[in-house]
Amino acid sequence: MFVFVSGGKQFSVDAGDCIKVDRLYVEPGCVIDVDEVLVCNVNGVVTVGDPIVKGATVKAEVLKHTRNDKIIVFKKRRRHNSRRKNGHRQPMTILKILETSLAKGE
User: Fold this and answer.
1) Which residue in 97, 72, 94, 74 sits closest to 84, CA to CA?
2) CA-to-CA distance for 43 and 40, rounded, in angstroms?
3) pTM, full prediction
4) Cα–Cα nearest to 86, from 97, 100, 71
5) What is the mean pLDDT of residues 30-53?
């Protein structure tokens, strides 16, 4: 289990997982390496970074770009007959985690 940061959010992953992260501007099919790993758990040995774990990487493949479910934003001011309804769909990228690795000697 590795915990890494993408888009200001933390994700806990293992090899083979598929996750949704905020839009990454990379072509689908590309393989990316994420070096901002906060916590590693390899064979029961937990390594906590300060703030990141040196030598730890998460390799992921970009599957596709999509948009998340719609969020309804509704604002109302009582007794003023004032209402606003807006919707928003956040752009997302779907990643498949290929490999998690911790460098030897770290």
Assistant:
1) 74
2) 10
3) 0.82
4) 71
5) 93
